[in-house]
Sequence to fold (151 residues):
Amino acid sequence: MILAAVTAGLLVVATVLVHYEALRLLDWAMRRMDLHRLRIVFIVLGCFCAHIAEVVIFAVGLYLSATWLELGTIEGAVGDGFRDYLYFSIVSYTSLGLGDIYPSGHLRLLSGVEALIGLMMITWSATFTFLEMKTQWKDGNNDTHGNNDPR
Fold:
């Protein structure tokens, strides 16, 4: 159990660092864009890529925890490969929880932690996007063509 808790902690730290750096990079890059609407698309796509990277981090962590550390397995409609861990990671990160694949052993702790950190990272992305939208709306929602109409 201690090994699973340490593994979960390392995965959380890696996820937070990736997300922080992604948002920092997005903030830096979007400040150089003239088109406000393009900035929002850039933010959404950038956050999506960050979330995919974070899902992969947890998938690798789950896979290595199952195969090398023998902390448990994923069961249900599974094959024998990494793709099942990637799919399970996406389902856990987003808190979708379909139930066709489920963890056993100490992987249950890792999947619960992934659901919690996924919720936090998705909320962080939503907040980041909201703050940019609030800035645009405060600035009159101008684009480079002088169009102030929000439609």
Notes: The longest helix spans residues 36-67.
